[in-house]
User: What shape does this take?
Amino acid sequence: MEVGREMFIIEHLPALVIAIPLLAAFIAPLLKRFGKHAVSVWSILNLSIVECLVIVLGYRVIKDGIQSYAIGASIPSLLSPNGLPVRIILEVDAISSFMGLTSISIILLACIYSACFMKKYKSVERYYSLLLLMAAGIMGMAFTGDMFNMFVFLEVLSISSAGLIAFYAYKGEAIEAAFKYLVISSISALMVLFAIALLYGQYGLLNIAALGAAFRFTILDKIALALLVSAFVMKCGAVPLHMWVADAYGEAPAPISASLVVASQISLYALFRICFTLFGLLPAIQIIAWFIILFGLASMFVGVTMAMPQKDIKRLMAYHAISQTGYMLLGVGVGLAVINDINALNAFGIAAMEGGIFHIINHAMYKGLLFLVAGAIIYRTGTKNLNEMGGLGNRMPITAVLFLIGMLSITGLPPFNGFASKLIIYESVFLFNPILSVVAMIVSILTLASFVKVFYSAFTGQEQSKYKDVKEIPAIMLVPLLILAFLIILFGLFPGIILKLLVKPAVQALLDRAGYIGVVV
Assistant: This one.
């Protein structure tokens, strides 16, 4: 009996990692009658189960190859114009497992942090319900092999994120930020839907693998590519479509700001999946690659320069999130630019992609840590204004050390994880174009200057008398911060192991277009 249950779970893993948080989200409000604590425990429990299942699923992918899961019964008479069965297919490879593991880990830690951070607010059952919906949307986008369902899960993610951004509904700024996010999300969703319509109208297919095999590279294909790239660049918060990021990250509760980082990164994943798997052999893909590189450069430079004058600690970190997204776009963009040149791809393209993909998980960790530290400061002081802080290092020494770890990592200093991924990007991109690498290094120097100012303003300097009773945050809030700090140091000290176990398989999966298509076709 136990063996049968285990086999059932293993067989249905791709569906379970989506279904569990989705079902849990609708049950969470019903637990209100048992108290706020019951809702938070329920959410942490379900996200922990999903985390374990994602790890098992990732192990199966590494061991046995791509995992394909068809939802629904096979109806022989129900065929597409190309003769393929009409089924909703989940297709999990190493890159989607990588993104799923990164995302659910940050959301789980944010949920644990929320157990104390959010307990003073009413209607927390709505908060946890939306957080679980966000997790379901992210897992769906990571594991779907179907274009239309990618759109559906994108909408689930967008609506839940908007609700969480507007959680402080008594603040006009939060409502404004949520409205901006909804407008951007609606525009991007319409672009994705129109692109899907163009592809379906030509090929009668929605499955990503089947579409990739059927492409004739028509003018409509190129229009669809432009629409999809624009939509996902908008959703990942890259310049020049970054206008929502500072407001959304700045006004959302701190654990949601950390979760929005991975929500943006899943759109980045969708962009990479579209470019490499769906359109990878299209001649125009190298033009798109250069646009991605330029988006990356603009994001790095504009993000860091906009961050430097900020006085609001969370808005400052939001602009740095834009800047760090640029490194991922730069690394993977360089790989895409040389995808049809085998010699160049082997020389530096793969290394650039490894740096960009490695930076995704590194950024999720150190930016998650920094947002949670910002939340800890706000939790104890009640202010986001750096000019109203000072001397908190004496009152919150552990938080100060944790902030220092995140700060040194985001600026790319050894022995932290940010250094490991940025060094790979610097070296590989230099072989492609030295100017791009120099710009990336200058941005890191400016990032260091900006965060030195933050550290001085918040933790050193003259101690404010009104904060004389401030003390360290509760232990349950410190646990996620300590875990993230440990992982940051671990990934920085042993980058070779992380590259071998997580990053290289993810990059190879992204490059293996034929393998992804072959599983279905």
